[in-house]
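Hey, resending since the last one bounced:
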Amino acid sequence: MSHRLRSYASHFAIAILGSLVAFSGGSPPVQAQNATILREAIPPGQQPVELIPSEGARQATAPQNAQQPAPAARPVQLPKPAPQDGVVSRLISRLMPSEHVSGKELDNVLSARALDLYIESFDPLKLYFLQSDIDQFKKYSTVLDDHVRAGNLDLAYYIFGRFTQRVDERVATIRQLLKTDFDFTVDEQVIVDRDAAQYAQNVDEATDRWRRQLKLSLLDLKDSDEPVVGQEARDQLMRRYDRYANRWKSTSSDDILEMFLTAVTNSYDPHSTYMSPATLEDFTISMSLNLDGIGASLGEKDGTTQVKAIIPGGAADLHGKLKPDDTIVAVGQGDDGEMVDILEMPLKDVVKLIRGKAGTTVRLGVRPGGTGNMEIYEIVRARVELEDSAARGEIIEHQLSNQNSTLKIGYINLPSFYMDMEGAKRQDADFRSSTRDVAKILEDFKRQNVAGVVLDLSRNGGGSLTEAISLTGLFIDQGPVVQVKDANGSVQKYDDDQRGTVWDGPLVVLTSKLSASASEIFAGAIKDYHRGIVVGDPQTHGKGTVQTLMDIGQSLFRIKRANYGALKVTLQQFYLPDGESTQLKGVAADIILPSVISKMPVAEGDLEYALEHDRVNPARHNLYRMVPMDLINSLRVSSQQRIATNKEFTELMRRIALYVEQKDQKSISLNEEKFMQRRAEMKAQKDEEEEELEAQLGSDVVFRDTYYNQEVLNITHQYIEGLRAQNLARAN
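The structure tokens again:
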């Protein structure tokens, strides 16, 4: 086996993928798009241009073209761009076309995208700007690219200045509305879907929108685990919006630059971002393996803090209740610290509240799925250690319900594709890696005569590409595993170049919509080689790109003289051996099982301006005879029949339908009786799911004995028997 465990140094410099290791995985890192709520500013050097003032605005002016600075939205002292900001802007305009995998120039199409993204980053639910504001901004949709190339940030400051003006106006309106009575018997709706929302046409319409928003907030507070009602609820809401307005007023020029240039880079794809100096420092800290916290990747969505991913082996993972797509609305310290309202709070401030020393307790006010009533989760912070997210195996004696025969099935839980990078660089003989750990588990499985293996990647958000290649090599005898295309359009393939296999018997790969990047490369290669079958959600996450971090200071001066932030840019795209990209489409399952995750908006395709799927020429490789189509069709039929008669799967399908119905709702009734009835239904569903998980959670659990996982074993059992019947099942 030693030839299988050599250092894959030839692949080491390719890329690092995954939510644990670098810039891949299911979602952008914490600092990414819209992650930092900013403050207030005004452009210098103004040359006024007459425009029709917008509703409720003081006299407003705007930039005419790329060469003409934008005048002030209002006469308030706002920060000015730092001396280096224009230089950074010009550099970004050169780096994106040359380094981005698309090779696209920053043109008018991307300019219009960037303008939309910049506006959305301030006002995603369309609650502050008026339609007249947007109409004025849109006049400059084809010149934003010229501004960036010229290092002219006046348009960015002009829009920001108008926004802070609107925030002050809306907060004044909120203050007056909270002094009035609200009728909760009226059956009126509030729009909660950002795509269905429209900007108010005038001040009266904006006021009515806010009246409804406040009714929704008051109902939310009343329906929380710790109900807040009456004047206390009104005071809490007023404090929330006063705090919100004050934060915008403390915005720095670095914040505005990050927001503006990230809108530009996001116009290329959602994973390319600009990090300000402060964000770069935070990001460097967050990448440290010694960071204490809850072990969750967070993002910002519509002014709320959303859980993007749970890090395997972390505190949240061990706690068991926090899930992707949940929304965190409050944070408390210790067992009885005050619950701080974090709605509309900048993500970087939220992270500071949640982060803390290992062993201390943080209390999170969470809305499951983003729409439920608030529940309090007490999580003990912990340090994520490699051991906690390492591969673990278990042998299960499995018997089909209609048969007497029992099979030994080896089950491997692999939360990430990890590698001790420092040990690998030193060429230590025993450096830790997922390939080495899985190989040891497989050798133990063989000694105990397992009939087949299940490799669970359903929670695996990625990791090292080197490891994806070498781990694939445990199951195939040499050949291409992944192909990589860069900005020049050149394609390079990366092979497993080690002879032999560690396991050549039946293999089932379990995936979900959360399986991303390196997971997709492994599952896709196994599928292309016809080496095993993929079971789970209809498709994996669909992230087929890799990003690199370019230090702006080094790019400008060749040496790191100062922190000017960094550009995280998508520079390569991945393709499977048969030439298909994993981008957007992911890897399709051979046998689909129903799940709530498959309906969650957590895939690459749910992100705005995600790169398109494409293909390159296939790479020649061997084909195994482990996926006969007649057997696959038989397995599908048998699985569907079992699911149709299984009470727990029937209940799961009901919960999935309810989840989809709730997620698709574009508005919510503000009639208190209907509102509370809807929340009660959602809570009942959540309670059922938690009861189901309660007995199964624990740090020492490798295989969770659920009806879902039992069906995975049923499929695996029948798969092994089917291969044996065709004399195809082999094992070393």
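DSSP finds 21 helices and 21 strands in the chain.

Sorry for the duplicate.
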